[in-house]
Amino acid sequence: MTIFPTKKVIEVKDLHVHFYTYAGVVKAISGVSFEIYEGETFCLVGETGCGKSVTSRALTRLIESPGRIVKGRIIFYRDSGPVDIMTLSEEELREIRGREIAYIFQDPTAALDPLYTVGYQIAETMVAHRTADWREAFRKAINILKSVIMPDPERRVKNYPHELSGGMRQRVVIGVSLSNRPKLLIADEPTTNLDVTIQAQILDLLRKLKKNEQMTLLLITHNMGVVAEMCTRVAVMYAGKIVELGPVIDVFKDPRHPYTRGLLRAVPNPLGKVERLESIPGTVPNLIYPPPGCRFHPRCPYMMEVCKSKEPPMVDLGEGRKVACWLYVK
Amino acid sequence: MTLVSEEVYEKKILDKVIDRLVDGVAKVIDKFKPGWSVKNRSKIDEWKLMFYAFNRSPPGLIGAALILGFIAIGIFGPYFAPYSYRLFLFIEHEETYLVPPGSTIVSKGETFYFPLGTDKYGRDLLSLILYGARVSLVVSMIVIALGVPLGIVLGLVAGYFGGKIDEIIMRITDTFLAFPALILAIAFAAVLPERLRPMIIYNEQLKTLLSIFFAADPRDAANFAPILSVILAIIIVWWPGYTRIIRGSVLSVRENLYVEAARALGVSTWKILTKHILPNVISPVLVLITLDVGAVILVEAGLSFLGLGAQDPMIDWGKIVFDGAQYFPDRWWLVLFPGLATFLAVLGWNLVGDTLRDVLDPKTRRSIEFKVKKKKLAATSEDGGASQ
Amino acid sequence: MAGLKEYLVRRAVTFIPTLLGVTLIVFIIANIIPADPARAWAGGERARPEIVARIRKQYHLDDPWYIQYVFVMKGIISYFTSPTHEGAIIDPLTSKYVFDNIFLRFPTTFQLALFAEIFILTIGIPLGLISALKRNTWIDTFVRFFALTGTSMPIFWFGYLMMWVFFSHLRWTSLAGVPSPRCYESGTCPITTYIPIFDALIAGEYDIVMQVIRRFWLPGFVLGFRAAGVLARIVRNSFLDALSSDFIEFAKAKGLPKRWIWKHALKNAFVPVITVIGLQFGGLLGGAVITETVFGLPGIGRYAVNSINYLNMPAVIGVTLMFAFMYMLVNLMVDIVYSALDPRIRY
Question: What superfamily in CATH does domain C102-341 come from?
Answer without folding.
Answer: MetI-like (1.10.3720.10)
